[in-house]
Write a structure and sequence with these properties.
Layout lengths: L1 H25 L6 H30 L3 H25 L2
Helix pairs in contact: 1-2, 1-3, 2-3
């Protein structure tokens, strides 16, 4: 029962990571050099969190810890939502 949930939450985390990378990349063409540097660091951090979350979720599913895999797999999506809210509030 927990394995499909772990797989779906991992896919959700991967999709949210990809979505945030595309949104950051789309906002970069008309940026100042300082903003471009910030966008590059944000893209790097989102990619690293997504990669670590995906690898850790797959590892926990391999050792039959499906509940933990579901929680870890969803962590990148939570990170993306928090980052989106922070960026939304600072652009005013």
């Amino acid at each position: 029962m927990h394995l499909p949930l772990a797989i779906l939450s991992t896919l959700t985390g991967m999709g949210a990571t990809l979505l945030m990378l595309v949104l950051l990349l789309a906002g970069s063409p008309n940026s100042t050099p300082a903003q471009l540097s910030q966008i590059k660091w944000l893209m790097l951090s989102v990619a690293v969190v997504g990669l670590i979350g995906t690898v850790a979720a797959i590892w926990s599913m391999c050792v039959h810890r499906h509940g933990l895999g579901a929680a870890i797999g969803f962590a990148p999506a939570l990170f993306v939502v928090i980052l989106f809210v922070i960026l939304w509030n600072t652009q005013g």
